[in-house]
């Protein structure tokens, strides 16, 4: 498995695209997360868009995400959690591969990336999402938006990568507070081994679902 060095990624100038549209979405359909809605939207679009190549665990296995992105102009990105200022590698990986994302996720993503660098689609309205995707591909939006996609890619590689963000947090602590000796960064899978952390995550998940229902009830949900 070949992993490109960072400098090679930064220096890449040409991005040949021979295919149209792809997505990475597993067969998971958990109802306590957004997995089922994500799967249902992807299933609806895959049944109606012959251009869509669907990859993911339980669907079409791949060893490296580049297989599902590098050759494609467009990439369908659907988050498993919808909240302002919450975007994940689903969006950033698409930018690194120089694709134009059709994005169902962070409603404030334009505060981090150029507005023209991705195309929002609704998670809860598959028919509307289909219309948006078809029109964008027919109108050649990929070619029109290349400068914005390049700008978003540069932001991911130089500003939003883990090392740059960690350095920014450390710098901010040095300016405004103190750093606890021996502090460590831990992933969520490690943290879940502590029962208290698992309970906190469960509480956060329940609180999110309650807030989401409240927004839908008032007509302010995305």
Task: Pick out its properties.
alpha/beta; 222 residues; globular; 9 helices; Rossmann fold
**What characterizes the major β-sheet?**
5 strands, parallel
Secondary structural class: alpha/beta
Spell the H/E element sequence: HEHEEHEEHHHHHH
Number of strands: 5
Please tell me how large the radius of gyration is.
19 Å
Brief digest:
Helix content is 45%, strand content 11%. It has 9 helices and 5 strands.
Could you explain how this protein is built, in words?
By secondary structure, this protein is of the alpha/beta class. It has 2 domains: 6-158, Rossmann fold; 186-222. Helix content is 45%, strand content 11%. The chain contains 9 helices and 5 strands. A 5-stranded parallel sheet has the order 2-1-3-4-5, sandwiched between helices. Strand 3 (72-78), helix 3 (89-96) and strand 4 (100-104) form a beta-alpha-beta unit. The N and C termini lie far apart (39 Å). Residues 218-222 have low confidence and may be disordered.
């Amino acid at each position: 498995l070949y992993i490109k060095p960072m400098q090679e990624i930064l220096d890449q100038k040409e991005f040949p695209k021979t295919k149209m549209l792809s997505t990475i979405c597993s067969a998971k359909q958990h109802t306590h997360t957004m997995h089922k809605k994500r799967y249902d939207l992807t299933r609806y679009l895959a049944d109606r868009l012959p251009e869509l190549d669907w990859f993911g665990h339980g669907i079409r296995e791949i060893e490296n995400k580049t297989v599902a992105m590098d050759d494609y102009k467009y990439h369908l990105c659907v988050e498993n959690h919808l909240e302002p200022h919450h975007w994940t590698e689903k969006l950033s990986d698409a930018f690194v591969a120089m694709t134009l994302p059709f994005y169902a996720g962070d409603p404030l993503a334009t505060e981090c990336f150029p507005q023209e660098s991705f195309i929002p689609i609704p998670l809860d309205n598959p028919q509307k999402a289909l219309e948006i995707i078809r029109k964008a591909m027919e109108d050649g939006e990929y070619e029109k938006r290349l400068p914005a996609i390049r700008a978003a890619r540069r932001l991911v590689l130089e500003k939003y990568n883990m090392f740059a963000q960690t350095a920014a947090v450390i710098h901010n602590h040095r300016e405004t507070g103190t750093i606890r000796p021996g502090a460590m960064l831990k992933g969520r899978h490690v943290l879940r081994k502590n029962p208290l952390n698992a309970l906190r995550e469960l509480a956060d998940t329940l609180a999110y679902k309650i807030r989401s229902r409240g927004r839908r009830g008032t007509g302010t949900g995305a």
